[in-house]
Amino acid sequence: MAKVTRRGIAAVVTALLLLGIGAGVGVVVEDALGMRCSPADPMQSAPVVAPEIGEPVLPPAFTEVTAPDSPAIEVALDAVADATSAASGTDGDAALTVEITGSGADGDAYRLTGTSADLRLEAATEAGATRGLYDLARQIRAARSIDELLGAHEASALALRMTDLGAVAVTPDPAVYEAGTDYSHASRAFADVILPEAPYVDERALEAAYDDFEEFLRHSLANGFTAVAFPGFVEYVTFDDAPGGPVYAEDDDHRDKAIALREAFAPMWERADELGVKVFLRTDMLALTIPLHQHLEAEFGSLDTEDPEFWQTYTAGLDELYAAEPVLDGVLIRIGEAGDVYDVAGWDVYSALAVTTVDGVRAMLEAFTGQAEASDREVIFRTWSVGVGAVGDMHTNVESYQAVLGGIDSPALIVSTKYTLGDYYTWLPLNDTLEQGTQRRIVEFQSRREFENYGAFPNDLGAEYQWALQRLLAANPLIEGAWVWTQDGGPWRAGPMTLYLKAGFWQLYELNTQVAAALSVDPAADPAQVTADWAREWFSDDPATVAAIVDAMGSSREAIAQGLYLEQFADQRVFALGLEPPPMMWIFEWDILTGDSAVLDAMYMVVRDNGGIDAAIAGGERAIDAAERMQQLVAATDAATWHTPQIREALLGAIAYEVDTLQMLGDYRTMILQQARWHDTRSAEAYAAWEAAKASFEASAAEHLERYEGDLAHPAFNLTAAQQGVDRAERDLTMSWMARFLLIPTLAWIVIGVLAARTRLVRRPGAVAAAASIVASTRPWRARAATYGMLRTDRWLLLGVPAALLVATRAVQTSFLSWTHLAVVLGAWLVFAVVLRLILRRHSPWPVIAAVGGVIVLRCAVTLVALAFTGPGGYWFAFWTQPTVRTVYIAIAFALFLWAFIAAAWALATQLGARRAIGAVVASVGAGLLVPAVIIGAIGLEPALSLWNDELGLLPWGLARILGLTTYLEIPAETPWVAAGVGALLVAIGALLALPGRRTASTP
């Protein structure tokens, strides 16, 4: 009796210990998820006041021009001539005199005097003279009076006004856009120019690329830009003088290719220089080739970016490059993103995310700025970064910014930062890291907003840009420039085929390029006037038509802000998994309507607690109203007043596309919110509302796909993940009823097992098996006695009931949609059982079957209770949104999982002895881990996780397609093999422990 009591006490203590461990796991999960939110402070902007739109003013014909002889002045005069010839006519003749005085104010200040018939432009510098000419050209393009320009014009507020490379040397190939699933961030610029073999350059393609570059330069200068970021660095360097070098052997074609590419692009860089445009080479760090990678590892043992000497290889490369091409002005560095999504297949130039520590960043910048100071160049360092720690969030965290960059005060260093506190999303706060620091700063803007359908919707950002710039300049006098992305950012071929200056309706997002440039020159400029000038340039001279377009664009932000975002979620700063997810999320990177439970359930909770579900649904309706208002305004204009019928059709087509998309998104938001509301409240009204919204979404989604699938200008959204979410949601109610029905025999089995030994139930069929199952699982030391002498029927019930229940529970838990999940879970249990049976050999397996089977029944009962409310959707809703419920569930479930193996060993101990019993279970557990791990490792962790996630819909479907689950969650690719190694070790240890000694227990 005392022995039984001790065993009972030991069992209770063990159970409590396991519950404690399970609760600890729950706390760890809670900490890992780290879900929290707090109010954000979204950027504001003054209401747009439409300017007075007057009649178009014809320019004079400049019949007499006197100006200095220089390429920059010549191209600026061409802009004036082009604008004049593009006007609907001229009004009289005029003389234009341009004089560079060489004295007085520096920068690009100028003075325009005289009359519209006799103009005189004076400036101290060539930059001032060309700015004045481009201002004159813009005035003519906007059909405004030249007299408005008369007077003195102060130097631009931001002298450095940089662009990306637009779509220069990018081929508009419809075939690569049709699928819409290429999420590569590589522009593949110059792909037609660069050859893999000697002579390495296709001269005909190079000539076409040069023409592209010339057109882009002229257009950018006319818009007011003064610098360009040109891709590449290591591909132009031989590294002959690298420490420990040369990097490339004499017969290595990398060297010849570098020289060939350098010579090929040099005329472009020289042309930019003679037109007054700075050229910065844009590169990720680390930028590598295979031989360079090998050289660095041979020299330093690894890619040790914290070693100052490591960077001497790169600075030697810059010395070489600047000596060969003195017109280059510096280098622009990003460390925060790298890898396959940015690399080009077949090119031996790739990037590695290797500068991840504060010491690494500081060592890099000290080396690069030292080289820049010595060579009279500049280094632009982007704070854009991802990951954990100070380097990971220096873009959005003032303390991290200071930790990384504090004290690095080189006059050659310029720090570049996006104006949003994060990526280019609406609702984000102003990036307050731009208000601090002792470094020179530039502000980054994006014209073709990648997350807002790649600029395919009207999206006038002028008021927001002005609000941001004015506050930043007031807070930080060290801001001296802006970098405007005319085309770049995000995947190039997953959205509409719009390529700046060459394909698609790029004129729509040209507005943001022009307004960013105008505000960089004069932050007090009227954004609405810039919009009116843009409308006059590209659409119509007619005052009524221009006014309608300006009015319509005034509604564009509400359509975007309410239609692509849920305000009640977007105006909060949400944190999860140690990161700060963006304010959109339900449209996940970039056109994928997500259907996963983690995002949608978390969004629901934030929305519910911050304004309410009904308000969020109403936001979608407001967006549709704004888009339809735009549509009505533009459609009501006189078609005869437009420059061309095609440009009118393009704008109306873009707005119609937006209206259709927002209607579909409005139906989807209603559906997902009502679905989560049902899981939250379990009310019949919420379920009925979900069913109605689902029907509306399915109808609007079908119409959207039918209308826009295959449309290169207006591509349909990717609804695969959303449809998968609908498929799962449709099964939730059925699965909840199945869980309830399964609970009946499950609870009956448990109750019969508890009562059978003490009542007449023991005489009923199966009662002995149920009793043995409960006894063995709760008091495993009695498992052998409980199963002794059982009839064949009871034995098969003892095995069959838990096995069938396990299969059925897992099938219901996955809505019969994840055979991968079933295969892994059931396969692991099967391997465990087979190995255990092989070890037992002539010993009876029934005691351990009873013990493990009983625990499985109890474990299934816990899961079925969780599923019985609103099915698997409700199960995951509680997991993601209810911390207390999640922790309690994990504590119980995890404790039962561990108890299954403890009970197995305890039950075997009466036959094998404690040592051999423990060994048998350890070996079996190891085998159950080893076999699935090897299979997953052979398949690949990323494909395996992606398939599993696709079936269960826990994390965004697009995550696997774009970033990769393992990359995003920072799961090492070798994890399955590590698990397999652990499994093999357990097998070996268990086998040793299970070896029989001199004495063995007898069989029953």
UniProtKB/TrEMBL annotation:
The chain crosses the membrane at residues 737-757, 796-813, 819-840, 847-869, 889-909, 921-941, 977-995. The keyword Nucleotide-binding does not apply. It comes from the Bacteria. Keywords: Membrane, Transmembrane, Transmembrane helix. This is Glycosyl hydrolase family 67 C-terminal domain-containing protein. It comes from Microbacterium awajiense.
